[in-house]
């Protein structure tokens, strides 16, 4: 089968609610689509995400109830759980620092160019400033301080714990879309599900407490009755604003 173009894959992708029972999908191909997912754009290149690829039937059976017995979950051949890991920001910042130093070469920091120093300081100073919090209190203090500074010059204002959670979930959502488009390109179908008991999902998969479920994606090949109706989108002119 010829792989679809990006435009063809986007047009082909639908939220499929029922998958064919007699058609399996290749776990290795699904894994390759997850490899495409991690190439998605991500805030500050922190890559605050994880992907749990479920192929084990007993685990799939447990996940059915955790996904509220939705048709997409009960008929899925495999599941991919996209997890936002804001709690890993320190680890991922250190990884970026190590990568940058490997790119800049074996030399003293005093020999770094202005641009190289800026990149390193971004992860050493700015990221900790934005992500560090204590019971939400520090976030509100930063929010107040940044908004006062914002009276005099443009400044980044999303510095509360809730803001950074949104940032992590946005990046995870971008990765999820990469995955679903990649699946559509090879003729596989998906259904992103927000309706789940996230605490049960965490317990089933052993996901850490501080991690957050972004979405559960059901995977398979669409059944004839798998799409519930024609695609509806509000008029393009209603959402497109040219300035």
How would you explain this protein's 3D organization?
Helix content is about 50%, strand content about 10%. The chain is of the alpha+beta class and about 240 residues long. Strands 1-2-4-3 form a four-stranded antiparallel β-sheet, with helices on both faces. α3 packs antiparallel against α9 and α5 packs antiparallel against α6. The longest helix is centred in the C-terminal third of the chain and has 25 residues, at about 160-185. The radius of gyration is 21 Å and the shape is globular. The two termini are about 40 Å apart. The mean pLDDT is about 95.
Main sheet specs:
4 strands, antiparallel
Strand content: 5-15%
Low-confidence stretches: none
Write down the secondary-structure element order.
HHEHHEHHHHEHEH
* Number of distinct beta strands: 4
Strand order in the largest sheet: 1-2-4-3
Rg, please? 21 Å
Given helix and strand content, the structural type is alpha+beta
What general outline do the C-alpha atoms trace? globular
Oligomeric state of the chains present here: single chain
Summarize the structure.
By secondary structure, the chain is of the alpha+beta class. The protein is built from ten helices and four strands.
Provide keyphrases for this structure.
single chain; 243 residues; alpha+beta; 4-stranded antiparallel β-sheet; 10 helices; 48% helix
């Amino acid at each position: 089968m010829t792989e679809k173009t990006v435009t063809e894959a986007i047009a082909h992708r639908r939220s499929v609610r029922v998958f064919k029972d007699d058609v399996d999908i290749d776990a290795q191909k699904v894994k390759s689509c997850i490899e495409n997912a991690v190439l998605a754009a991500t805030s500050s290149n922190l890559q605050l995400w994880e992907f749990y690829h479920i192929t084990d039937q007993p685990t799939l059976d447990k996940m059915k109830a955790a996904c509220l017995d939705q048709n997409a979950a009960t008929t899925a051949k495999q599941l991919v759980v996209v997890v936002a890991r804001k709690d890993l920001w320190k680890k991922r910042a250190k990884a970026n620092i190590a990568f940058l130093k490997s790119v800049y070469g074996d030399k003293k920091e005093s020999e770094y160019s202005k641009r190289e120093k800026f990149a390193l300081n971004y992860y050493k100073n700015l990221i900790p400033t934005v992500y560090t919090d204590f019971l939400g209190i520090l976030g509100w203090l930063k929010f107040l301080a940044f908004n006062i500074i914002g009276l005099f010059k443009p400044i980044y204002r999303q510095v509360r714990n809730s803001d950074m959670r949104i940032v992590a979930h946005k990046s995870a959502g971008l990765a999820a879309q990469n995955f679903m488009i990649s699946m559509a390109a090879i003729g596989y179908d998906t259904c992103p599900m927000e309706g789940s008991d996230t605490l049960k999902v965490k317990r089933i998969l052993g996901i850490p407490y501080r991690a957050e479920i972004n979405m559960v994606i059901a995977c398979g090949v669409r059944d004839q009755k798998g799409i519930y109706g024609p695609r509806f989108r509000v008029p393009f002119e209603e959402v497109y604003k040219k300035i």
